[in-house]
C-alpha cells in the first residue's frame, strides 16, 4: 500500500527511502524515482544558489527603491519646512544635516551620514535618484542586499571623508552623489570580474568627473572619495577569500577595515581644520 495513501495498492517504491508509493506520489529522478516526501526534504537541505560575491541570490532590488523613497521624502520635508522648492536649503533640517567640515569638527559627526540624504532643489534630487535607480539595482541584484548596504555605506562615508580632507571647512555639501559614484565604481569592478566590457560605465564616469571639475558648485571631492571607496570595497567583496570557507569573515573584516579608514581620514580632516 502507498505510504501516503493507505487505500491504494502499489508495487512501486521510492528509490531513495524505499517506502511503497503510488504513481501520484512519485516523480522521476536522475536514478529511479523519488516520493514527494523525499523531494520536499531534498529541496530544504539543498545548498542555496550563490552569486559572484558568495551571497544568496537576490530575486529583485528592494533596497534601491527604499533609498529613493527615503530621499524623496526627506526632500519633500525640507521643501515644506523652507516653503520653497528650489531654496529648500533654507530649512532647519537641511542646515542641521548638510556636511559642513567645521561643524563636524565641533562634534556634529552625524553630518557625514545625513548629508547623503539631502538634496538642493529638484534637479539635484532627480539626477541622483535616476542614477541610483539605473546603477543601484544592477549592483544590488548581483552583490546581494547585505553587500549592497556595505558598498553604499562605505561609498557614502568615503565621499564624506574626502570632503572633510579637501573642501572648504566653512562650505556645505549635500547629496547622494558620493554614494552613487561609489556604485559606479562598484559596477566597473563587477563588470571586470565578470569579464564583461565596462567601456560605457567608464565613459559615464569620465563625463561626470568632467562635470564635477568644471561646475564650481559640484563637490568633486565627494564624488572622488565615493568612487575610490566604492570600487575598493567591491573589489574586496569579489576577490578576497574566494574558495575559502571563511570568505564571509574575510569580507566582513575588509568592510570593517575600509569603514575604519574613512573615519581615520575624517579625523585627519578635523585635525587639519
UniProtKB/TrEMBL annotation:
Domain Peptidase S54 rhomboid as annotated: residue spans: 107-238
Membrane-protein topology: Multi-pass membrane protein
Subcellular location: Membrane
Signal peptide (residue range): none
CDD domains xrefs: Bbox2
Classification via PANTHER family: PRESENILIN-ASSOCIATED RHOMBOID-LIKE PROTEIN, MITOCHONDRIAL, RHOMBOID PROTEASE
Protein family (similarity comment): Belongs to the peptidase S54 family.
Enzyme class: hydrolase
Pfam family, one: Rhomboid
Domain of life: Bacteria
This protein's record includes keyword Membrane: yes
EC number assigned by the record: 3.4.21.105
Keyword terms, alphabetized: Hydrolase, Membrane, Protease, Transmembrane, Transmembrane helix
One GO MF term: serine-type endopeptidase activity
CC terms in the record's Gene Ontology section: membrane
GO biological processes: proteolysis
Gene name of the record: gluP
Identification of the protein by name: Rhomboid protease GluP
